[in-house]
Design a protein that fits this description.
The protein is mostly helical. It contains 13 helices and 8 strands. The longest helix is centred in the middle third of the chain and has 23 residues, at 106-128.
Length: 301
C-alpha cells in the first residue's frame, strides 16, 4: 500500500533546479523547475498517497513576518539564501513529480493544489521582480498569471489554469480553453480528485495568495489532515481584517469577481459566506461597498 511521503526525507532524493532569471517573455527554466530534472529517485512521489509539505511550511515560518494583520514575505531574504533557493526548487521538483489523482482523499488533493499555487507564485515573483519592491503581478496586464511556465504533476501550466481549471472547475474559463487537450484533461481530473462540484469549497479563495497586499495572507502550508481547521483559520483571519476582508468600509473585491463561487459548496451567497466565516458575523459589515484591492507586492519593506 502506498504510504506517506515525508518531504523532508524526499529532499535527499531530489535534485535542485537552476536558479535562472525569468524575463516575463515566455516559459522559463526557473519557474518550471523539476520539469527536466526528475529521475528515478522521485518515483515514490508519483505514487504517494499523502504529503506533509514540511519544506514549504519551514520556508514560510522563516520568511513571513506580520505588520499588524498583514503578512509580508521577505523575497530578498529568500533570494539571498542559497539554502532557501535550493529548498524551494526541490519542493517544486517534488510537486512536478506527484500525481494528484493518486493521493488518498480530496483533502490531500486540495492541500497539494493550494500549496502548489502559493509556492509557484513565490517562485515566479523571485524570478521576475528583480529586487524592485514596486514591481507587481499586475504589470503587463497580469501576464504573470497567464504564462504556462510551471509544472505540477508532470503538466506544464499557468497559474490561471491551476486556479480556474483545477481549483474552481471552470472548464469554460479562457485560460483553460487555451490549454492543450491533455492539460485540460489533467485539470479536470484534479478537480474531480479534489471532490468535484459536490466537494467544491469557496474557501479556496482565502487559501491561495497572489503575492499582493489585497490577497488573503500567505502564512502557512496546508496539509490534508488539518485542512478543515486551516481553512477555517484562513477565512476568519481574512474576514476579520476590515482593511481588505470585510468591515464598515465594505468587502473584498474577491466577492465581486467570484460572486458565483460563494453560492456553491453549500453556501447561500456572499452574505452567507461572510456571516458563517467571520467571527463577528455580519455585524459592522457594509455588504454594498467594495474595498479597494491593492496589487502592491506583499514584500517586507
Amino acid at each position: 500500500m502506498r504510504g506517506t511521503l515525508t518531504l523532508a526525507l524526499a529532499l535527499a532524493l531530489a535534485g535542485c533546479g537552476d536558479w535562472t532569471e525569468y524575463d516575463g517573455q515566455g516559459p522559463a527554466a526557473a519557474p518550471a523547475v523539476g520539469a527536466g530534472d526528475l529521475d528515478e529517485s522521485l518515483g515514490d512521489v508519483a505514487t504517494a498517497e499523502r504529503l506533509d509539505h514540511l519544506i514549504l511550511q519551514g520556508l514560510l515560518q522563516r520568511y513571513v513576518t506580520f505588520d499588524g494583520a498583514q503578512a509580508l514575505l521577505d523575497y530578498d531574504g529568500v533570494a539571498a539564501s542559497a539554502e532557501a533557493r535550493i529548498l524551494l526548487d526541490q519542493y517544486l521538483a517534488l510537486l512536478a513529480a506527484v500525481d494528484p489523482t493518486a493521493l488518498a482523499d480530496a483533502a490531500e488533493v486540495k492541500a497539494l493544489l493550494f500549496n502548489a499555487y502559493n509556492a509557484l507564485t513565490l517562485r515566479g515573483v523571485l524570478a521576475q521582480y528583480g529586487g524592485d519592491p514596486g514591481w507587481s503581478v499586475s504589470d503587463g496586464g497580469f501576464v504573470f498569471f497567464q504564462q504556462p511556465a510551471y509544472v505540477v504533476g508532470g503538466v506544464t501550466l499557468s497559474l490561471d489554469q491551476l486556479e480556474h481549471g483545477a481549483l474552481r472547475g471552470d472548464a469554460e474559463h479562457a485560460s483553460v480553453q487555451a490549454a492543450s487537450v491533455e492539460t485540460r484533461a489533467a485539470l479536470a481530473a484534479w478537480f474531480q480528485a479534489a471532490g468535484g462540484e459536490a466537494g467544491f469549497d469557496p474557501r479556496l479563495h482565502m487559501a491561495i495568495n497572489c503575492a499582493s497586499l489585497g490577497c488573503p495572507n500567505l502564512a502557512f502550508a496546508f496539509d490534508g489532515p488539518r485542512l478543515e481547521a486551516q481553512l477555517t483559520q484562513a477565512v476568519a483571519a481574512f474576514l476579520s481584517d476590515p482593511a481588505k476582508g470585510a468591515g464598515p468600509e465594505g468587502i473584498s473585491q474577491l466577492f465581486t469577481w467570484f460572486e458565483g463561487d460563494f453560492a456553491r459548496g453549500g453556501y447561500g451567497g456572499v452574505a452567507d459566506f461572510i456571516e458563517r466565516g467571520r467571527p463577528d458575523g455580519l455585524a459592522g459589515v457594509s455588504l454594498g461597498e467594495g474595498l479597494a484591492y491593492s496589487w502592491d507586492l506583499n514584500i517586507v519593506r
